[in-house]
Amino acid sequence: MTIERVQTGSPWEAAIGFARAVAAGDRVLVAGTMPLADGVLQGEGDPYEQTRAAFAHALEALKPFGLDASAVLRTRVYLTHLRDVDAAARAHKEIFDAAPPATTLVVVSGFVDSRVLVEVELEAFRELPRLSEQTTFREA
């Protein structure tokens, strides 16, 4: 099986040693994604905007595999405050309402950047060619 990795240039990828997205077989996994772009926090203090931004970055990591939100099977939303569940849920629904994935929302004690209120992960499915389409058999 071929494993493909996508890195986005985030300083956290280099510091921690991880890839934003990893594809193996028919699955594509996108690692914990924060609402940061070029080191700038998007939606500071706003859990709705942070959720939208974090998922936008996570979905961007699917593009090299030719995937979008409709391919997402599962999401995980990590929040630092229980009070933010409704805002995060509203953003999630707007993004995934057409093809709802299995979803988990979890409240955690914090993230590496204390201004971050939301971090997200996702898992997506990609169709692979059937074995008969991948392999040609010839008679000897």
- The percent range for strand residues is 25-35%
**Oligomer class:** single chain
Q: Over all CA atoms, what is the radius of gyration?
A: 17 Å
Low-confidence stretches: none
Q: Helicity level, as a percent range?
A: 25-40%
Mean pLDDT across residues: 90
What's the helix-strand series? EHEEEEHEHEEH
Description:
The protein is built from 4 helices and 8 strands; from the N terminus they run E-H-E-E-E-E-H-E-H-E-E-H. With 140 residues, it is α+β, with helices and mostly antiparallel strands. Strands 1-2-3-8-6-7 form a 6-stranded mixed beta sheet, covered by helices on one side. The protein starts with a strand and ends in a 6-residue tail after the last helix.
Outline the fold blueprint.
Blueprint: E1 3-6, H1 11-16, E2 21-24, E3 27-33, E4 36-37, E5 40-41, H2 47-60, E6 72-79, H3 85-96, E7 102-107, E8 118-125, H4 131-134
Parallel strand pairs: 6-7
Antiparallel strand pairs: 1-2, 2-3, 3-8, 4-5, 6-8
Summarize the structure.
This protein is of the alpha+beta class.
